[in-house]
Amino acid sequence: MLKGKTALVTGSTSGIGLGIAQALAAQGANLILNGFGDADGARREAEQAGNGIRVGYHGADMSRPAEIEEMMRYADSEFGGVDILVNNAGIQHVANIEDFPVERWDAVIAINLTSAFHTTRLALPGMKQKNWGRIINIASAHGLVASAQKSAYVAAKHGIVGLTKVTALETAQTGITANAICPGWVLTPLVQKQVDARAEREGIPVEQAKRELVMEKQPSGQFVTPQELGALAVFLASDAAAQVRGAAWNMDGGWVAQ
């Protein structure tokens, strides 16, 4: 379905990003991976998911605009540009507002929000030239509702939803769409750290900490999987979603329905 298209997925060496990259690869899209994790392992998994696709990698630090520009130039020179842009890179820090380290606030906003602005502004000219493109921003249930001690993350994810809507409006009469996916709890390495910290803090087994964490927010009691999110990303990249524009699509086990 996506044969001949090139997808750039930021933060795609593990977790949600890798799951989405694999799903796009399975539909024939060439891939550009990005992230600080195991790039060789992610490349192998992406190549196995696809059939004869090209897989590239760029290690841009998504907090640095100059490196993002370099990554987008790499996409242009090596792949002829980006057709499907998935802004997924993200970090987390948990603290009360008055205790929140300023440098951590700046880092969360830079990686979770500002990087998506830079990749989008750099991808749009090429997409407009082709009159086809898909921008898929990975927001969060926290792009729709808040939780205590996550001020930077919640602010960034609300910002991503807003950026998505503006991008959708500015491209509304083109073949380019922009949408956000808002996952609930996904058992990524980022969330596993929160599970481990909870288990240690409360002196409980990790499995118990995992169940308690997900049940606090997610009525289904089940984690969302990267594979489920990948399937949604494939739909949003498809022709069937040509008139899905500016959506903030929650996949959250009922979290924001409460």
Give a quick set of tags describing it:
258 residues; alpha/beta; Rossmann fold; 2 domains; 8 helices; 7 strands; 13% strand
Structural summary, described in words:
With 258 residues, this protein is an alpha/beta fold. 48% of the residues lie in helices and 13% in strands. The protein folds into two domains: 6-184 and 225-251, 3-Layer(aba) Sandwich (Rossmann fold), CATH 3.40.50.720; 185-223, no CATH class. Strands 3-2-1-4-5-6-7 form a seven-stranded parallel sheet, sandwiched between helices. Strand 5, helix 5 and strand 6 form a beta-alpha-beta unit.
Radius of gyration: 18 Å
Find the CATH superfamily of the largest domain. Answer: NAD(P)-binding Rossmann-like Domain
Q: Structural class of the secondary structure composition?
A: alpha/beta
Identify the overall geometry: globular
Segments where pLDDT lies below 50 for 5+ residues?
Answer: none
Number of β-strand runs: 7
Euclidean distance between termini CA atoms? 36 Å
- Corresponding CATH architecture of the largest domain: 3-Layer(aba) Sandwich
Outline the biggest β-sheet.
7 strands, parallel
Order of helices and strands: EHEHEHEHEHEHHHE
CATH class of the largest domain: Alpha Beta
How confident overall, as mean pLDDT?
96
- Helix count from the secondary structure assignment: 8
Binned, the helix content reads 40-55%
Widest beta sheet: strand line-up: 3-2-1-4-5-6-7
Number of domains: 2
- Strand residue content: 5-15%
* CATH fold description of the largest domain: Rossmann fold
